[in-house]
Amino acid sequence: MKDCNQCGKCCIKYGGGDLSASKEEIDLWELFNPEIFKFVKDNEIWFDPESGAPLQTCPFLEVEPKKNADAPNKYTCSIYLDRPEDCRHYPSLIAEMVRDECEMIEITDLAKPKQAQIKLDLLMQDSRPSAS
């Protein structure tokens, strides 16, 4: 499995209404991160603060400046440390990564999905809640 190359496929795919945030996260944003909370409507995320319309992409997904014009886009999250739990836990399954065309997957991962899942679980262990 390769390191994340910041292709943004996951954020682009799930950033337009396919994510949720817990009540606790939303409450914390309201208190400590009003710049995030303003994109919440009726405990759902991401909505235009002025019109109330659902956004098609995450408002916090940013394209890094390119070093050269031919380079692929690289994406960053401007609220990375305060991102929703859904974002912190992704990716969770090899099948999910394959479905989403994640660029971290390698041919050897596809040939040995159980071993790849173990590797992914180790890689993501600090981002996910403990099993206990």
Structure report:
It contains seven helices and four strands. A hairpin with a 2-residue loop joins strand 1 (40-41) and strand 2 (44-45). The mean pLDDT is 92. It has 132 residues and is mostly helical. The strands form two sheets. The chain has a two-stranded antiparallel ribbon with strand order 1-2. The longest helix has 11 residues, at 113-123. The chain has helices spanning 9-14, 23-32, 34-37, 85-89, 94-99, 107-111, 113-123, and strands at 40-41, 44-45, 61-63, 75-77. 17% of the residues are buried.
The largest sheet, given as strand count, sense and whether it forms a barrel, is: 2 strands, antiparallel
The gyration radius over C-alpha positions equals 16 Å
What is the number of independent domains?
1
Mean pLDDT: 92
What strand order characterises the main sheet?
1-2
Shape descriptor: globular
Counting DSSP E segments of at least 2 residues, the number of strands comes to 4
* Terminal-residue CA separation: 27 Å
What structural category do the secondary elements indicate? mainly alpha
Low-confidence stretches: none
- Secondary-structure element string: HHHEEEEHHHH
Number of alpha- plus pi-helical segments: 7
Helix content: 25-40%
What fraction strand?
5-15%
Summarize the structure.
By secondary structure, the chain is mostly helical. It has helices at 9-14, 23-32, 34-37, 85-89, 94-99, 107-111, 113-123; strands at residues 40-41, 44-45, 61-63, 75-77.
